[in-house]
Design brief:
This is Crooked neck-like protein 1. By secondary structure, the chain is mainly alpha-helical. Helices cover 71% and strands 3% of the residues.
Length: 712
């Protein structure tokens, strides 16, 4: 049975207790004054002795329990001091030091006891003992020197510092000694301390403190000597940017602008980027304030130079960085710097013998040689650069025609024609290349050496007889010198080659030459010969015939000749089944008739215009097997094509039936009745079969030519 009490009255209480009230009461109760034991009043001397004996017994018992507890010893000594028993307090300290003589607090409290009661000699004795036992504890020396200075014993304080300095303490100890001398205006003695200080701690910041001290007392000449001696003593390895910045600012304050600028430039040339992070910014501000345009440009050049050095340190084979670096140095005009930069750049030879890694690298050599030739006029060095670069390239693997040709042009400018021909002859014999042959031939032609150019063309074409452009160029050179028979002979040899690259260029050039020479019969013969090899020149042949003067001056005669060509081309393409080419030919023929023909001719051509329809066929995979994928393609239906006439008629009938169906000319019964009858033919004509028709329909859809007439 549930006996838990139930709240009968659930209404809110009249007085509500908030959380804030509870917290406030708890805080008030915690801040009450704790219990303090009542003070004991001693009435006579006997009670005092009894109290002291009891207290000492308690301290002695605590020490016997743990003699190494320093806090107990300190409390014991302080209690004895409070009782006026200095001898007993000293005894307690001495006893504690016998046990813990390395404890700093015991020595300090012992000395403070004596100083509090103005026992200076005894305090001095304690400090002497402390620094003798623990000379590396700085607090003893500080307290000792401070005590001597407080009692106006400056000589004694100086003596303490001298004893301390013999131990070569930290920088703070030296700074404290210097401050002592400065407080009493002993500048000479402070200078001596500084001199010993920088010998003990030769960090740059300590030299700067010394220089600022000398500047502060008006000894600017001596301060300048300190800066110079600092740089000389520490050397480039240990001098940081702060020394140079401070030195330059010192000269700036003295209005020695040229000196300050020289210091900045010297520092920028000596310090690497890692040690000159702030130096560039300070120098920039200096030049903006005191310099001109040249000074600001020098700062920018210095910054960019450091940036390029950092990028090269990360990747020395980044030739784009070397390009920018050499251009930067060239803008300065300093020959030695530019040459050194180029030498460093070309020393970074690519590690692999692949041409794509050498392309950017070779341009460094080309720029270097061009700079030596144009700027320094050192032609011997330029020739040495070209020779060295050519010896460096593995020509059996790959070569660079641009380098050979630039070297040859340089030799021509130096009137060394024998050397130029020898160099290019070596290049052709070692690593023949189209660009080398073309460049060599161009140079010989510029020198008007046609016979040498002929010999080079013969070698060129014997090496690569399939180059149509080379044959054309050879023939055009013969034409330019007036030897047309030789020109025709070259063209005849060229078109007789079995393998040619872009033969259409060669045939066109041959025909154009004959037309220019007004040999229209030869040109027509060339077109006829070309038609035996290619079926794509009917339009060009027709245009030629329209402009052929041999066809007479009467436009009707020319028009008749052109129509014959178009008609021949149409018949040939029809026999071969080239529907796309035939459609393009008919379209061109129609445009010709519109421009130059008559209505009868235009009507005749328009009767041949095909209709483009979309069909479907299966896609063949790589093995030539039909896949399950269908694709749409454009086909042309020609009106006069006998094989396509049934299909065209069926297509027209189906199209007309579909239009009537849309217009509602058939009722629902006729529509359902005719649907089964005509749907198959309609799908066959449109090429939209879905694979669910009869076997004859699937056969027609699989046919690549889409010849629905045969299936019908």
């Amino acid at each position: 049975m549930d006996r838990s009490s139930k709240v009968k009255n659930k209404n809110a209480a009249a007085v509500q207790i908030t959380a804030e009230q509870l917290l406030r009461e708890a805080q008030e109760r915690s801040s009450e004054t704790p219990h303090v034991a009542p003070k004991q009043k001693i009435a006579d001397e006997e009670e005092l002795l009894e109290y002291r004996q009891k207290k000492r017994k308690g301290f002695e018992d605590a020490i016997r329990k743990n003699r190494n507890h320093v806090g107990t010893w300190l409390k014991y000594a302080q209690w004895e001091e409070s009782q006026g028993e200095l001898e007993r307090s000293r005894s307690v300290f001495e006893r504690s030091l016998d046990i813990e003589h390395r404890n700093h607090t015991l020595w300090i409290k012992y000395a403070e006891l004596e100083m509090k009661h103005k026992n200076v000699n005894m305090a001095r004795n304690i400090f002497d003992r402390a620094v003798a036992i623990l000379p590396r504890v700085d607090v003893f020396w500080y307290k000792y020197a401070y005590m001597e200075e407080v009692i106006d014993n400056v000589a004694g304080a100086r003596q303490v510092f001298e004893r301390w300095m013999s131990w070569e303490p930290s920088e703070d100890a030296w700074n404290a000694y210097i401050k002592l001398e400065k407080r009493y205006n002993e500048n000479a003695k402070a200078r001596g301390v500084f001199q010993r200080f920088v010998s003990c701690h030769p960090q740059p910041k300590n030299w700067l403190k010394w220089a600022k001290f000398e500047e502060g007392i008006g000894r600017t000449d001596f301060a300048r000597e300190i800066y110079e001696k600092c740089i000389e003593t520490l050397g480039e390895e240990f001098v940081d940017q702060n020394v140079y910045i401070s030195f330059a600012k010192f000269e700036t304050r003295l209005k020695e602008i040229d000196r300050a600028r020289a210091i900045y430039k010297y520092a920028l040339g000596k310090l690497p980027k890692s040690k000159a992070e702030n130096l560039h910014n300070v120098y920039s501000q200096f030049e903006k304030q005191y310099g001109g345009r040249e000074g600001i440009e020098d700062v920018i050049v210095a910054k960019r130079r450091v940036k390029y050095e950092e990028e090269i340190a990360v990747n020395s084979k980044d030739y784009d960085v070397w390009f920018d670096y050499t251009r930067l140095e060239e803008s300065t005009g300093e020959i030695d710097r530019i040459r050194d930069c180029y030498e460093r750049a070309i020393a970074e030879v690519p590690l692999t013998k692949e041409k794509r890694f050498w392309r950017r690298y070779i341009y460094l050599w080309l720029f270097y040689a061009a700079w030596e030739e144009k700027v320094t006029k050192d032609f011997d060095r330029t020739k040495a650069i070209y020779t060295k670069s050519l010896n460096l390239i593995p020509h059996k693997t790959f070569t660079f025609a641009k380098l050979w040709l630039n070297y040859a042009k340089f030799l021509i400018r130096r009137d060394d024609f024998t050397g130029f021909r020898k160099a290019l002859g070596t290049s052709i014999g070692m690593c023949p290349k189209d660009k080398l042959f073309r460049g060599y031939i161009d140079l010989e032609l510029k020198l008007q050496e046609v016979d040498r150019a002929r010999i080079l063309f013969e070698k060129y074409l014997s090496w690569n007889s399939s180059n149509s452009a080379a044959w054309v160029r050879f023939a055009q050179i013969e034409k330019s010198v007036g030897d047309f028979e030789r020109c025709r002979g070259i063209f005849e040899i060229a078109i007789g080659q079995e393998a040619l690259e872009m033969p259409e260029i060669l045939w066109k050039a041959y025909i154009d030459v004959e037309i220019e020479e007004e040999e229209y019969g030869r040109a027509k013969e060339l077109y006829e010969r070309l038609l035996k090899r290619s079926e794509h020149v009917w339009i060009a042949f027709a245009r030629f015939e329209y402009g052929n003067p041999d066809n007479g001056e009467d436009p009707s005669d020319r028009l008749s000749a052109v129509r014959k060509i178009f008609s021949r081309g149409y018949d040939v393409l029809r026999r071969k089944g080239e529907k796309t080419d035939r459609a393009f030919l008919v379209e061109t023929w129609r445009e010709f008739e519109k421009s130059f023909g008559d209505a009868a001719g235009l009507k005749n051509v328009e009767s041949k215009i095909p209709r483009m329809v979309k069909k479907r066929r299966r896609v063949l995979d790589d093995d030539g097997v039909e896949s399950g994928i269908w694709e749409e393609y454009n086909d042309y239906l020609f009106p006069d094509d006998e094989t396509e006439r049934p299909n065209l008629k069926l297509f027209e009938m189906a199209h007309a039936w579909k239009e009537k169906l849309k217009m509602g000319l058939f009722d629902s019964d006729d529509e359902s009745a005719d649907e089964d009858e005509d749907d198959s033919d309609n799908e066959n004509i449109m090429g939209d079969g879905d694979g669910e028709a009869s076997n004859s329909k699937r056969k027609r859809d699989a046919d690549d030519d889409g010849s629905d007439a045969e299936s019908s």
